[in-house]
Amino acid sequence: MKKIAIIILLLLGVQTIGFSQSLEESLEIAGENNPELKAYFNDYLAALEKVPQVGALPDPELSMGFFIRPMERFMGNQQADIQLMQMFPWFGMLKTQKDEASKMALAQYEVFQDAKNRLFFQVKNTWYEMYRLEEDIRITEENLDILKQYERLALIRFQSAGVGGSSSSSGMQGTSNMSSGSSTSSSSSMGSMGSGMTSGTSGKTSSKGNSSMSSSASMGEGKSGMSDVLRVRIEIKELENTLALLRDSRVPLVAEFNQLLNRNTDERVSIADSLTDTVLTLERLAVLDSITQNNPMLKMLDAEEEAYEAQKKMARLEGRPMLGAGVNYMPFSPRTENGMPMGGNDMVMPMVGLTIPIYRKKYNALQKEAELKQLAVQQRRENTVNQLTTRWSTALRDLDDANRRTKLYREQTDLARQTLNLLMTSYATDGRDFEEVLRIQQQLLDYQLRLITSIVDQHITIAILENLAATELN
């Protein structure tokens, strides 16, 4: 009984060991090292480089012609004809082009922001899944230790039952010898022999009955104790197999996490020792407002709509003439006529140019194209808002479900522990209900695992809402 009490006390004093690493630190590493995120950022930088391109004037045109034989003119012999021309778009065209390129670059920046939010959510989700796995392993190991202690407890009861059976057999033999001795000593007289024979016979019958009952009870108790040992060993084998599977599941999760951080797949990852319940601090409609205002995909579509508005203005301006200004330079050399030098002064002639946009169909088509693209963006934005609203509603439902499950499994865990303590006390006293002890222990393990899952689901759902709103909600 003393050993049994010690084992029960050990069962009630389980300690946990955890790891610690900041999730924020992992997010920072991912933001700095992830190659896909770097690619999106370089796309944004490349889009920015388009702004100075479209905001610059067209390159000036220089044309030069040289005469193989100088052309004789009144002013002298013309050696060459050099022209330099600079074209100028219509007023406001360059500004509109820069505005359109800036909006497109802003749209590309929002694509980068969306990629960053998705990356951060993947890091958080994988981190939470690793935490769930580590907690599952820890709880399973604890329950495996408890089952092994149950096994030792059942073995102690089985051995105790075996010792009790041996003592009963010895007592039965002693009682039988004492009865036969009584009958022999009482045979000295006839009267007392009769009474001695009667007394001896009745003593033998009584001792045989008692020994038979004691032997049957001890055999029954021994069989029951051995079956308890076998039952708990079956549960141990099942739990050991589950534990091996959980440990094997570490490898792909760690590899996925390190891949997101652009590290070696086998690099060690440390996980925080505990996650507490989390709640949504903002009102639900405030979260939806934050999503519709801050979501990068909506901002990207807004930037595209503004860019197409600039494209419509550009299409109208392209239908206006382009102005050109330049200079024509003609070098002359003196020529001799009647023995006297004539001319020889170089000529400089200012020039202007003008394009005549008379083919209006292409300019009308450009404007119509921009209008249709703008309409498509507006429709796409409306659809995106509907999808985000649906995901917001689904996430809130999942969060409510996780909150309810967390509360339920915490209460169920406490009740299962109380029930298990009562059953263990009963089993330590009279050895009954061991199968019920194993069933409640399995139920307690199930509740513990479900409680961890519900808490992790809370954090994952909050991470989903933060991904949609592109901001911290707690």
From TrEMBL:
Cell location: Cell outer membrane
Matches recorded under Gene3D superfamilies: Outer membrane efflux proteins (OEP)
Any Pfam family matching the protein: OEP
Biased composition range(s): Low complexity: 166-224
Keywords: Cell outer membrane, Membrane, Transmembrane, Transmembrane beta strand, Transport
UniProt feature coiled coil, ranges: none
Chief location bin: membrane
Top-rank taxon: Bacteria
Ranges for region Disordered: 164-224
Membership in a protein family: Belongs to the outer membrane factor (OMF) (TC 1.B.17) family.
Descriptive protein name: TolC family protein
Organism: Shiella aurantiaca
